[in-house]
Specification:
heterodimer; A: 160 residues; mainly alpha; B: 640 residues; mainly beta; ten-stranded mixed sheet; six-stranded mixed sheet
Chain lengths: 160, 640
Amino acid sequence: MKNLIKGKSLIVALMFIAGSFMISSCSSDDQQADKSPSAKSEAGESASVPEYGVGPVKEVSVSNPPDEALAEKGEAIFASKCSACHKMEGRYVGPAMDGVTERRNLAWIMNMILNPEEMTKKDPIAKKLLAEYMTQMVYQDVTEDEARAIVEYLRLNDTN
Amino acid sequence: MTSCNVKSKGSPDGTDDAARKVYVAPGEHDEFYAFLSGGFNGQVSVYGMPSGRHLKMIPVFSQHAENGYGYSEESKALLNTTYGNIPWDDLHHPKLSRTDGMADGRFLFVNGNNTPRIARIDLTTFETVETLEIPNSAGNHCSPYPTNNTEYVVAGTRFSVPISDEGGIEDIELEKLNEYYRGSISFIKVDDKSGEMDLEFQILVPGFDYDIANGGKGPSEDWIFFTAYNSEQATTLKEVNASLHDKDFVAAINWKKAAEYVKQGKYREIPAEYFHNKMDKKTHVASSEVKKKVKVISPEECPDIMYLIPTPKSPHGVDVDPSGEFICVSGKLASMVPVHSFSNMLKAIENKDHVDVFESIPILKYESVLAAEVKDIGLGPLHTEFDGKGNAYSSMFVSSEIVKWRLKDFEILDRIPVYYSVGHLMIPGGDTHKPDGKYLVAMNKITKDRYLPTGPELCHSAQLIDISGDKMKMLLDFPTIGEPHYAQAIKADIVAPKSKKIYRLDENEHPHATLKEADTRVERDGNIVRVYMTAIRSHLAPDNIEGIHLGDTVYFHVTNLEQDWDVPHGFAVKGARNAEILIMPGETKTLEWIPTKTGVTPFYCTDFCSALHQEMQGYARVSPEGANVPIKYWLGDPKK
């Protein structure tokens, strides 16, 4: 919707981007891999990755309707640390957030925030998203409590 | 053929053993950080030891085009002096801050030799955070020397100059210079917690050349020792005229007593103008303060603070052994190293064992203070360090060797050739009361054929020597940057755990920070245009800017919104007449741009940050002066 490149040119552009990604992967991407905390573990474990992905959070307990005070906190954190790449509607640097709490397990969303490098290496959905968007989800030094607040903000957004 | 060559020049025991000792496997870390002075490049380079890997360049007294230090609006003030903004200096001696006489890994102090300054580097960020100009100084060479708890950092002048009581350096006939000139030794108080420096007082001393200093330890910890040459007080053709006497001096100064005199009010305050520049921890913006006065004391008015010990001609290094008893002096022109005894010195002071008095300062009797002369040590001794196992190691500039000798009986034990003309040498903690006597680094002044030739200009070379056994063993050659004058090394596990990974966005108090993309904007105030920009993989916001006119000064205040380790973004705009800037995660940095041509002007991220780094770019439209083009900006949506 908000893509600046459309139709055929989009495909060409993506091929080009994919090409340059492959070329650069031997330098910058390998460096990234060495720096990540998971560098020493083996890749290719996606088959056994659980629904909540890879990270510290296994389940999220929620109240209904969403906690508005918590969501407000989440909104402020989202504005400073996430909104440069994610909008509610439409593709931006990363996917649109509308409906994300319905598409994904809530613990998965938190792990994606808390542990993006390992997620995009091991979790099958996150790997696919990286291939689609070509930009590594950024580690933003968000605490577990802050990630929980962001999820509440996204839940509130999805109920409205 | 090659191995033959390596064997004869390098490791006599073969290279395999040496290679094993310096090999640090990929992904593994070195045991030590080594901080090597950059000399004429005004920087400090950080190496891993024993690998010799270059880890970082820390710009201090020189602008650094690589990251914008000294070019960015935030860092410019660090280079302010009473001579204006000086973007270069000759950086000589690094010294680590100390607690209980041991390097504590908090700060590194360094001196600017040419335009006298002392700087402090914070070792959580490896960045220069403070620079202090030293008034009444010229050739700030014998500095900076910390006392054992970093109560003071001491800085001395190499050139004596006619210091005026009315402030400043006098304009007098050079033929009468030696009737007027004096040296100054500055005592910079260091704040216990913040590390912040403050020039507390200066001792005005006789007009000699003061060369190198080192502090005492243990019994001698209240004292600091300086080599003083040119006792002839020559002012021309010093090469000849400063070599007429058969002895020069070690100046012993009781810094504790001097500080007490100042506390008792026995000082004069004289006008002095000097800059004190500090980087604010919260805003990351450096600012300058001009100080107007300095307290001075003199040995005439404050007895017992200074004594002169005769010492063989043209002394250079003065190094105190780990016990604090032996003061080893290297006379460049002597073929021996005199070792003075601190306890003998105290006795000579007590017994008034003087041979003379120089401007009220007692000159003690050489033979009464001397412990021993280490004879036939080599040619051109310059410096000595210690291994903590009772041995000393002296560098020989002329005969290009390191000589190991024993403090117990002053016997020479071993010598190893170095390539070539070694100046300083360094053992980790080798200047403290508890050295880590595993490695020695020789810093050589001449490189010649050691590496592949690179035309007339060659890197200086350092050599790593294993000193853990009876015989010294050559392990490694590595090129250095600039000209290292001394170095410091410290166990990595003291420094590494405290190393900052990011700057936290929620602690960013920069006056022009933009902490979220929604707040990005462009504002005009007269002919000043401020772009409040953010950077995150992989876009700059805003990336389309209109309404800039010729005659404007544009400030790009770029905040890096990343919060992940090692994800800097860069920023450059076409035609900018300074450097680009590198912005660390969570930091805000400012590039000044005065457009000189109309037209659409691109800007971009200079640090390969992601797969879409090449897309991280934008346009600024520059219109003629007075054109009717309003400020307008956007990212992705021109309707904004």
